[in-house]
């Protein structure tokens, strides 16, 4: 991959070419329509090359979950600016608003749609469930760190950072789920409410 | 069905037997593993009886979405008690807490898991998306009505009922998504935070 960005430039190797092909096949055929043949066709590889990399569909899908979560985390990864209020707003804005031009991903909604489809597999699949539990916790920790920094710097109220961050992660998962599965634009209705929650709960000078 | 409760007693007819069989097959094989043959086997019906009721898998799944949403709405339907604070707490508790004994559903988590799996289909399927958009709006309206009643009775702060209810629906969808796809119990961490949000935002006497 180019500069560590999964969807930019030419794929580095067959593994990555297969991951990108899986992403395209998922967009085209849906989860239930994914097949090794279709993915191999999309990647312009033979099925035998495919089986050189993966034991089968189950193995592929675990790798693909990892790939989507890496992309998800890359999108929502924050470099701390040293200003927790700004960090918090950037973090929330990345999820709620259109992407700033600096984020090189072809289609945010497609990535979030795939995230929802992969996440739904975790209802049945314990391996997926384990992985999502782990990444949810990392994600909440990142959020809690911003809150703790804000408290330490005297900018945020002394809330329970773990609880508030877990709550925010749930709100954002709810936003992502609804956004990916509705015809209208429910986020625009709640955009102010989410800002108000953050202001009322966290910001001392509001 | 018995007393209008989809999972209680003997199924009234083949249509309902097929819906229940789809629910069981979904629990057993996952969404990707659903097939007409497996559903017919579960329902103890021939494939030809199946095709008497449904044109095919697509048609079946739209009916099944309806079935799960009906069950979902039955579970979360509220009879107004005339006390909006109580209604609100009951509504939230139905989603966050264990079922009270009066709710006759064999397994709340199985229903919510199926809801997540069906909802993920809406990422790709416009018919599913249309239906979820519609039922989300009905659900939010029900919630907004409780808030409006509370404002009218002078118990709740004069918030924008539509926005707060849409926000709460997102929170609850986030809770349902995480709960169905994690190993641990994230709801217990945020239970207090959700109560606090409601108290701080809505209740005047808190």
UniProtKB/TrEMBL annotation, chains A, B:
Residues 35-54 bind DNA. Residues 12-72 form the HTH tetR-type domain. It comes from Haloarcula terrestris. The lineage of its organism: Archaea, Methanobacteriati, Methanobacteriota, Stenosarchaea group, Halobacteria. It comes from the Archaea. Pfam families: TetR_C_6, TetR_N. Keywords: DNA-binding, Repressor, Transcription, Transcription regulation. This is TetR/AcrR family transcriptional regulator. GO terms for molecular function: DNA binding. PANTHER family: HTH-TYPE TRANSCRIPTIONAL REGULATOR YJDC (PTHR47506:SF1), TRANSCRIPTIONAL REGULATORY PROTEIN (PTHR47506).
